[in-house]
Amino acid sequence: MRPSLLVWLVAAGLSRAAFAFEPFVVKDIRVEGIQRTEAGTVFSYLPVKVGETFDEEKSAAAIKALYATGFFSDVRLEVQDGVLIVQVQERPAIGQIDIFGAKEFSKDQLKTGLKEVGLAESRIFDRALLDKAEQELKRQYLARGKYGVEIKTTVTPLERNRVAIRFDISEGEVAKIRQINIVGAQAFREKDLLELMNLSTPNWLSWYTKNDQYSKQKLAGDLETLRSFYLNRGYMDFAIESTQVQITPDKKDIYITINIHEGPRYTLSDIKVAGELLIPEDELRKLVKVKSGEVFSRERITETTKAISDRLGNEGYAFANVNAVPEVDRERQRVAFTFFIDPGRRVYVRQVRISGNTRTRDEVIRREMRQIEGGWYSAAKINRSKERIDKLDYFKEVNIETPAVPGTTDQVDVNVRVEEKPTGSIMAGAGFSSGEGLILSGSVSQANVLGSGNFLAVQANTSKVNTVYALSYTNPYYTDDGLSLGFDIYTRKVDSTALSVTTYTTSSQGLGLRLGVPIAETDSIGFGLGYEHTKSTVDTTASPVYAQFVSTFGNSYSILRGDASWARDTRDSRLYPMKGRLQRAVGEIGLPGAELNYVKLTYQHQWLTPLSRDTALLLNGEVGWAKGLLGDPFPFFKNYYAGGVTSVRGYKAGTIGPKDNLGQAIGGTRRIIGNAEYLFPLPGLKNDKSARLSAFLDAGAVYGPDAKVSLGDLRYSAGIALSWVSPVGPLKFSLAKALNPKPDDKTEVFQFQLGSVF
């Protein structure tokens, strides 16, 4: 009978008595019981080799090491005539994982979650992981509001010591938030407080927003929103005392109760500035956003500390510290604040370092930097540098860090780290407009040619009205100080038969040079010189004005065109603006020496101001004036038009203004457009910035060359509009009522414009 060194390890630590045997020299090592595991794997974990002495300590170490691999459910060590016999029982491997009944998630999504807890095909099966696996699956369903989910797990043995695991899922229905109660609200209506929250009871947009599905993270965010709301309105002692989330026994309905303590409303009794005042106190006080006698607002206190810190940062004090210290008088419900200023040391920038740009040249990024090496640190210049690099649109991400230089107290480095993105594109597009019908477009462009920052594009756009093919190139830094230079080559065809205007067609080919000059951070001017050759065709139904023009000048014209422009854009966003201005002035002139001589001037001024946290007022005004020069009439194919979704909604595109004897619009040489819009979020979407509603009042008029400009000729409309950056592209819809149409005006209640890129 061969003596046994160890039979069945039942605990991680066994007494040394359990291994009592005489040490011996190992003549050979044999492994028994393995099916998938290589013998070499077992040998690698043994602390002994042939020819070495094996004792109690090495025996315990060997068993622990083999168990620790997770490959084996049982390990024995035996010895026979100097041969060490390692007997193991392998754990089964997971041969396959099957999931049935999953509809809310794809099987791949669920398997990814299982893999994160250690359960995946080809891995060693551990029955203890099944509970974790079920909990992981339930966690994913609970995150979608499916609290009634049931999961049944079946383990089936397979050949070659493998198992198949099957998950049968009964998803149940999504639990909806049926009621949210806020207990303790007295200063504000519960209805108004609920409007602040993302979570809500079911409404007509719940299918899209999913806000009627409970989420712990969303609730935490809503509680912070409530807290900020009260603190910004004077309630310093506001507290959320408790929250209860209850689910009905059938796990279909959720009820949320939030208990709050409002406390009294505080006003500001005094505001002081103290500490090391390196900036004159009068200037610092201009940065203070609060005044004595006002209601306390945490938001405005925070804005003040930031404004003072940023101001010091602009003077080189990168590590300035501003603390707002309150003195609370609870009896009188008043609070005084002292802003203590510690500017720290003034620092300057040692180096600007750029990393992450694999294609884009360093100089393309450096020329956008407003913080220079060797200069005093300026927070405003660094922030502006980041904005300018972002606007290049060459990078997915732009991060700027300002670490202190080791061993110094007055130097920092500016580390600019970028993550590049593809800047070339081949696009095809399709869209539909109520004015132009089907629109097809395509383009091949490269916004960062060979990493130089130059732009090159070939474009094609077609519709029933306009067909354009163009080649464009721009060097935004033709000179080191930011002078841009570019050219355009194009061919354009216009067919007005699809519009409610007098019929004509034009075919133009042209080329031009462009020069851009930045005159400020938000201002630029541009100049252009181009040549354009146009052929026009009018039929018997065309306006006599058009026919007379063709009779006098023929149907082929050469134009030597000069352009000049100025633009200023201070809007906070191009996609979802809430404040700021956009001003543009554009001039076009047909220069003497060509067949047609004219001038055309257009000016636009757009102004936005926020009315509340998520609403804004937009006012837009446009004026246009044109005239023929040197005795030439103004070319009819360059006339102004108005009406449609982009000018005066409620009137058909291009139909406002002078008409011919058939009642068809012929355009004019002067135009006035005005728009007033109240912008607000789509109910149910709240913080989603992809969609926006507006209530608008539009006005506009177009005048012929001999008509007197009279505001009495303005056409008015009012209605509501929706702008949506949808997954298929930008959409614009409007429902408008023409308020004072003339008998020969053509109105249109519903208008839309959509497009997509794929």
Automatic annotation (TrEMBL):
Gene3D superfamilies noted in UniProt: membrane protein fhac, membrane protein fhac: a member of the omp85/tpsb transporter family
Major site of localization recorded for this protein: membrane
Coiled coil: none
PROSITE patterns xref list: LIPOCALIN, POTRA
Domain of life of the source: Bacteria
Entry keyword annotation includes Transmembrane helix: no
Keyword annotations: Cell outer membrane, Membrane, Repeat, Signal, Transmembrane, Transmembrane beta strand
Location in or out of the cell: Cell outer membrane; Membrane
Pfam families in the record: Omp85 (PF01103), POTRA (PF07244)
Cleavable signal peptide: 1-20
POTRA domain span: 24-91, 92-172, 175-263, 266-344, 347-421
HAMAP family: OM_assembly_BamA
Family, as annotated: Belongs to the BamA family.
Function statement: Part of the outer membrane protein assembly complex, which is involved in assembly and insertion of beta-barrel proteins into the outer membrane.
Subunit description: Part of the Bam complex.
Name used for this protein in its record: Outer membrane protein assembly factor BamA
Organism, as annotated: Thiobacter aerophilum
Gene this chain is encoded by: bamA
